[in-house]
Known about the structure:
Oligomer: single chain
Radius of gyration: 19 Å
Number of strands: 8
CATH topology of the domain at 7-202 and 258-274: TIM Barrel
Mean pLDDT: 93
CATH class of the domain at 7-202 and 258-274: Alpha Beta
Shape: globular
CATH architecture of the domain at 7-202 and 258-274: Alpha-Beta Barrel
Number of helices: 14
Distance between the termini: 35 Å
Structural class: alpha/beta
Amino acid sequence: MSNPKIALGTWAWGAGAFGGDSVFGSSTDENNLKPVFEAAMGAGLNLWDTATAYGMGESERILGKLAASYRREDVLISTKFTPQMAQMFGNDVSRMAQASMERMGIDYIDMYWIHNPMDVERWTPGLIPLLKSGKVKRVGVSNHNIKEIGRANQILGEAGFKVGAVQNHFSLLYRSSEKGGVLDYCKENGIEFWAYMVLEQGALSGKYNTQNPLPADSDRGRKYNPILPQLENLTAAMKEIGDKYGASVSQIGIAWAVAKGTMPIIGATKVHHITEAAEASKIALTAEEIATLEDLADATGIDTRGEWEHTME
Length: 313
């Protein structure tokens, strides 16, 4: 089955540390996510991205429950080994992967990532036994810069494997992976680039502004509400371009990421997120529109790098 143009993110699924309630100020559970999952599968969006760290396993558990009513080969599952949590699993990559599979009720993972580049030398080799056993089909690295990706590729290459994808924060407001050459490196080496936080946790969705801020008691509200005034020119231009295509502001943000040769990971907590994502992947922006958006984004002077990531430049 070929990969769709868009992956669906589950960072905001479930409660718990680093999960939906604390980071996003949202309340999601299996019941209200079931229609979302079904809408996505019906639209041919079958690639789901999660991590042990999201809600400390809660996101994986919900995903496994929802995927259980579909044939395993019809659902593509991407999850992650998070080095900061390694001690909980005896500092063993395979043990964390096994725990993920048990939570999701599956016996293999389609795409497994090293979540953060804490120690490339130490953690990358842990992917090799998983690839050899077939428990993991493909591997990737997340939040890694060119040097780290290259080294991970070397380590895997010695065992006859390779980095299949890179997953980094990439949006109109944060193009560090492009400026630092990661996008070009991926193109040259046949590596997929998965872009997360394309809509900056909703700040670029067109839904929020100074009159209607993000949830104030959430991590994203604390981060983005102070900069909403600086985003107005950019989101106004996104709306203007969107009107031309009969598309929303968020669809223009997604279409921009697709135009850059990346696969956006779109957070999916409501059915309309699915419909929007499916339609956005069909929009082809012009070079002029892309340049206009990037100039306005640069003019905001905003750096949205997360505290968990280092710059790619």
